[in-house]
Amino acid sequence: MRYGYFDDNAREYVIQRPDTPLPWINYLGEEDYFAMLSNTGGGYSFYRDARLRRLIRYRYNNVPADSGGRALYLRLSDGDFWSPAWQPVRKSLSAYECRVGLGYTRITSTYRGIQCEATYFVPLDQTLEVWRVKLTNQTDPSTNLSVFSLIEFCLWDAWDDQTNFQRNFNTGEVEVDEAAGVIYHKTEYRERRDHFAYFACSEPLAGFDTQREKFLGAYRGWHEPIVVEQGASANSIAHGWQPIGSHHVKVTLQPGELRTILFVLGYHENPRDQKFDPPESQTINKRTVKPIISRYLNLANVATAFAELKKHWDSLLSILQVYTPDEHTNRMVNIWNAYQCLITFNLSRSASFYESGIGRGMGFRDSNQDLLGFVHMVPARARQRILDLAATQLPTGGAYHQYQPLTKHGNNDVGGNFNDDPAWLILGVSAYLKETGDWSILDELVPYDNKVELATPLYEHLQRSFQYTIDRLGLHGLPLIGRADWNDCLNLNCFSEEPGESFQTTTNREGTVAESVFIAGLFVLASHELADLADHLQHADEAQRYRAAADRMEETVKAHGWDGDWFLRAYDALGHKVGSHEREEGRIFIESNGMCVLAGIGLQDGRAEQALAAVNEHLATPHGIVLQQPAYSRYYVHLGEISSYPPGYKENAGIFCHTNPWIMIAETLLGHGDQAFGYYSRINPSQREAISEVHRCEPYVYAQMIAGKDAATHGEAKNSWLTGTAAWNFAAITQHILGIQPTLTGLKIAPVIPTDWPGFSAKRVYRGVTYHIAVKRVGKGNAVTLKVDGQPVAGNVAPLPSQGTTDVKIDVVLA
Ligand code: BGC
Ligand code: NOJ
After folding, report:
1. Does residue 363 line the site of ligand 2, with CB under 6 A?
2. DSSP per residue over 473-541, as a string?
3. Per-residue model confidence as pLDDT tens digits over 285-324
4. pTM for this structure?
């Protein structure tokens, strides 16, 4: 069952009813100001950091779901009122449509002949969101309408806001410039904050409110505010308690008349010594914010800003466009997967409808992997991200597991010792170099632990990443796992017996025994990448050393990391095998099999074939590939969080989508195009749109997890949007299945596509040159014959063209 449809020409998903199985959201904003907006107009906004600079209060796990925060109310003169986005009033609308677009959402509805079209977006380079509300009277008589806007302000630090009520009920402060239609939220501005929020309206106000209780009335919910019911604002000024922003605008609409109202919610900073005006007062200095407000309360300016946003996305997406026989592939690669990659790049795992914005900052391994799907879009931002991440690396080569986006400093509460973390930096940097050829990044001086005095060139950070693993090998010569590797829930040194103790930060074992075959694979992969960089820098000895270490590790994996039919997963703290036929539960895991093959281990000796066949036999389901089997049926203290989940969910044998592209890529390395594409299609959100009642999450983006075959709700997705699935699937389909792969020396074209595809074409902008690629299948295999601008070229890499070339034509024959 579907709840809408894809409008590919408009690059929108059109939701046709408001009561989707879960809130289906969109992200607005790209650099500093971010907003989440659901298909019923809910969600919240923040400046840079969802924890430390939150503008809108939001209650997770609320009932009804996704209510409060942000709302619009319309009221007719007979007292009937409704929400044009359906929530929070939830009166039945005669028409409803929500267009989820790239960086904007437009919700259009009709109730008793009044059409409301609300477009929400964040203009490029601005720290504000615009709501453009178009009202049309589709009835005969002229109509008097009241419009009420609503924002519930968060007192900035979202954690404190939800916990420290004895203080917070006293601190709230606002200013209202009624004539200008602007409500200013200035809690804590009197003391150490030099930022405030504003909520502005383009129309003359009939009234306003800034105190929640006055707006709602005592013991009333968002669906029945007394002010809306009575049709008159209370003109309340918040003194402590819960500051809100609500404007009341009265409009009379003639039959057929259209009126547009603009609301602007924004964040603004003043220089510390110019906070107040007059200086000795406590009144906000509004000199620098006023021009911004007036600019975006102007219809023409808003229209221009919206057009610029559209143009921006056209240009981002035009970097890679593919035309394959499969509409789901085209739609995801050309629009939605790329879009999701930008969102994960921006927010890592910090703020979604499943991530509270309080719990997590930017993950070290997460953000490095996110680069894989983003680096081609805005390389300059990828470059900065790499430098920010590397600056949180520790002198040992280890890394803080997370950093706060606002401060960019490593997060002490979570700490480090996730022993896979450093290796991902090598992959992130190498992806950047392959895309851009900007070798200067390796010379950038980058601090350790954000201490400038410790800075070295970035290249040395990569060397220390490599060394970090070498310095931490276990009894079998495999890498020690530390707190955990990619699988945060395989906590082999945790041994927690205390309810509520964090699996992520508790370590009750020395960590000198438990080893990870996954990190071994990752290390082999990263060492080869690093060796290629060393070659380029003409450090032949070093390159030799990295390759030798990779070879040694490969031998170690073959000797101690092979279970007979598949790759082992790990050795636990007692030296017992994890992911082995010797176990009753957790006999085979996806991660080590994916990563080892991806690193090239076993490609020559049949092990890779065997491992992937085992994955297919034991782990594949019609909804995707589960993480391990058999699922753990009870809690194992020596395994940790993985066994805390009921069977089939999350890391305990859920379809943890992030891992599936590793298997897709591994299959392509063996030349299995049908199998790789088959796996790709099973978790492709667009493909799954037809079973939205089962999948339940948004059909336009990947979710972290789909419940596995042991779960009662097999096929149900959770944790949409912020997942490494986005970047890895983008890499799997574009670079390995379609085979358009940036390398250090040029664009490689090595498709491993399904046997029944006649071919495909693509346009890829790479290092400033537009490649027009046409792939034609003439046989069933993957052998590539390449012609570049009509000239045969040996191998499968189109060499970098001469300076000044703008377009290159590549013809590929697959046989
Ligand atoms: C989740 C993991 C996540 C970890 C760290 C665990 O509860 O299952 O997927 O990586 O928390 O936040
Ligand atoms: C989600 C985390 O963000 C990621 O870092 C981790 O690799 C996976 N969960 C698996 O546990």
Report:
1. yes
2. B-TTSSBB-BT-SS-TT--TTT---STT--TTT---S-SSS-EEHHHHHHHHHHHHHHHHHHHHTT-HH
3. 999 999 999 999 999 999 999 999 999 999 999 999 999 9
4. 0.98
